[in-house]
Amino acid sequence: MSYHNPYTPPRKSATFDDYTLAEIRRAAATGIYDIRGAGTKRKVPHFDDLLFLGASISRYPLEGYREKCDTSVVLGSRFAKKPITLKTPITIAGMSFGALSGNAKEALGRGATIAGTSTTTGDGGMTDEERGHSQTLVYQYLPSRYGMNPKDLRRADAIEVVVGQGAKPGGGGMLLGQKISDRVANMRNLPKGIDQRSACRHPDWTGPDDLEIKIMELREITDWEKPIYVKVGGARPYYDTALAVKAGADVVVLDGMQGGTAATQDVFIENVGMPTLACIRPAVQALQELGMHRKVQLIVSGGIRSGADVAKALALGADAVAIGTAALVAIGDNDPHWEEEYQKLGTTAGAYDDWHEGKDPAGITTQDPELAKRLDPVAAGRRLANYLKVMTLEAQTIARACGKNHLHNLEPEDLVALTIEASAMAQVPLAGTNWIPGKGGF
Amino acid sequence: MCGIVGLFLKDKSLEPELGNLLSDMLITMTDRGPDSAGIAIYGGTAEGRAKITIQSANPSADFEGLAGDLEKAGIKAHVWVKSTHAVIELDASKLADMRETLERIRPAVRLMGSGESVEIYKEIGLPKDVVARFGVRAMSGTHGIGHTRMATESAVTTLGAHPFSTGADQCLVHNGSLSNHNNLRRELVREGMTFETQNDSEVAAAYLTAEMAKGKDLGQALTGALDDLDGFFTFVVGTKSGFGVVRDPIACKPAVMAETDQYVAFGSEYRALVNLPGIEDARVWEPEPATVYFWDHDKAA
Amino acid sequence: MPIFDLSNTPLRELNSALHALSQGANDTEFEVVNPRGSHAVAVGIDSPVTVAVRGSVGYYCAGMNDGGRVTVHGSAGPGVAENMMSGTVVIEGDASQYAGATGRGGLLVIKGNAASRCGISMKGIDIVVHGSIGHMSAFMGQSGHLVVLGDAGDALGDSLYEAKLFVRGEVKSLGSDCIEKEMRPEHLEKLTELLERAGVTGVRPEEFKRYGSARKLYNFNIDNADAY
């Protein structure tokens, strides 16, 4: 009697999946770690796991239009002589000229200005174009100090001391050789064509006690006019927020691991830093314990994509949010329009992240003038403004449905969670229950 | 993060001024550490006598009738109450008994320090308030160290304040942030050390005590610390007769020293030293990284 | 001449007075007394004003100086003349760590010793130290000149770019990618000029050695991984 084996489907390993196998081969072949842009790509607990309760018999919604839902926010009320007022709590996060093309920076400035919000410079300094196109400009003060100078400090609207960012808390900035064009090299005072290494600590202070003195110096140089932000990646948000407050910050900026970068090691992006969702409540708790909630403002970034994300971040206690990756997508990054070229680069629209190679078909994360020409800053600016307005309207719609006349009146109690992780991180109950892991019932 | 000050007197005539000088130094460092402050003063030794400093969250309940209760337990002692702290002065031979007895009759009380010479006072609050609360200005002594705290990764509590004392007459203050203190704490617990907090600085203090219990002197223990402790640190350490300073090899946290014929002083910033007598002519320098500096009354400066 | 006594005048008044100077203002000489280790003294100067500070200062004295001439008759804390754009800063005593950090131009003269990280991340500043400097000096120095008459500590010029370092005394150790380089006529000329501007006499440029980047870390190569 013959025995005939039934078909066995080939089984791939979850641990050694296709990405992992390819990466091992790549490392063996090249002898260099993988460098890429963007934030974490793997699935982590996020705002998708939270839901708003909306209105019901016990809670009444607001009508649209006439029954106002205010979206404005004031940043820097603690110490600055000239705090910033924005029409919407959605700001544009720091991204450098050098990582982005001049046209892209211009587009961001135009769009933000139409929408009544701010943009932020990046690791390379302030360009005249960005100052010209952006009505409200936040100037980053980074470990590298590329391009740092007092004139730009004084013509900025706010100063953001960068301790770290979500994609790489503890890492420096990287801008590999291909993107150091003449202009970038000049601004950064570096030889053209080299791989730029950046320091991970500030050159002239370490620790919150010395940060306090540095912030005081920056205030003295700018005659106490500008709000001073302190930006950290998602490491120890409870302590980091408390220390930023004690060091004298006006605003704390918290960037979770979904936050993007121009270029850093993939291993860093995927394995260091916490999801944005895990950062917010500890930071808010620190502010509340110090009696500083709403007095020192909290800006949250890393994976903000829609008005729902905005509303959820604010409900958990943030005062504003920042978008980076989403803003780039709005102006055309990773657009299917260029699919043929993405394929030639060995990737596809939506997955392209080798931004450090400077070959971006969309003309955004590149210094190549031919590619950069593809981005029309005026049209792209309009797209960004549209997107910002849509997100603002979405947030307002949700807030009204929850009975709020100001986005800041959203509370954690307006939310429930779909998963245990999200429930524990956001400290809101699992939907349909009154259970928060670690906290028992209400 | 924090501010540290230290003063080691060579000139005995300055001893009555010790508390006053240290208080000014400490208050100048307030910006670096608004959360809590602490001071260790060495002085007032007498042959065969020892001191214990204790702290209570409920001073009236715990300190009321304490001397009487101790006598009933067979220990004759003087008790001086200073706000939330009390200094118990007793026969040195009764020191071990005292700790056991205190655990029995006043279990809520915490031990701040003990030994022949040291008194340790620490509380949450601004340096000027802490200094006033304990009457530090009036204290005299041979040397002292002080600390103002900006808590980094552990809570703002009395126990979390520095100086940390983990052995007789030994205490430590720290500016910086250790990165392997959790592993080290677990090892030290296995070696028999006990801990009151999750604070990294307490681990450093316990490490030194453990090393000295194995026979090393302070200088050797501090040298060992350079290898065994990871992170950023400037330590100022007090012992019965001396005062030590060490910075980690990277040496990012600040440290300024000043020396005259009358004293050796330490401050996190030069500002802390400006009111010291003769500072204009003092030798002012910054300690080198990974180098142990030590001054000892017994070994004659 | 405006005199600011920092023992009874807020620092704000000094710095805002310095910032308020317009072109052709009459008072271009300032004196600051009793600084007593204060931080951020005379920061953000942006006109050709002269400031004499009588005493020792804390952190960031003359930070971001652009065109001023600041003399400290005492010692300076961490970060003196940080990010200086142009002008001159003279420290009669010693300077603490990060002296001249990320400086982009101008001249910083330290008559005593400077501590660790002197000239860290320098971007065009010229620094002349009559005494010795500490470890990790000129770390990631991009451009400018560091001249040291005394000794240098460990890891001089670690991760150096194009800053030029001249040391007359002993160098305890060199940092990653920093090597001794040939002294050519143009270097001797530059050194002569710097020594003159810094008021140094009694030494000859030939007594110095030049150090610069080996440029092996300019483009990433896995075989250099040990250097990181």
Automatic annotation (TrEMBL), chain A:
Highest taxon listed in the record's lineage:
Bacteria
Its protein name is FMN-binding glutamate synthase family protein
Instruction: State the Gene Ontology BP annotations.
Output: glutamate biosynthetic process
Q: Which residues form the Glutamate synthase domain?
A: 79-332, 356-404
**Keyword terms:** Oxidoreductase
Record carries keyword Oxidoreductase: yes
Q: Which Gene3D superfamilies match?
A: Aldolase class I
Q: Name one GO molecular function term.
A: glutamate synthase activity
| Family assignment from sequence similarity | Belongs to the glutamate synthase family.
UniProtKB/TrEMBL annotation, chain C:
The protein's GO terms of the molecular function aspect are: oxidoreductase activity
What CDD domains does this protein map onto? GXGXG
Q: Which InterPro entries match?
A: Glu_synth_asu_C_sf (IPR036485), Glu_synth_lsu_3 (IPR012061)
SUPFAM superfamilies the UniProt entry points to: Alpha subunit of glutamate synthase, C-terminal domain
What is the name of this protein?
Answer: GXGXG domain-containing protein
From what organism does this protein derive? Rhizobium hidalgonense
The opening ranks of the lineage are: Bacteria, Pseudomonadati, Pseudomonadota, Alphaproteobacteria, Hyphomicrobiales
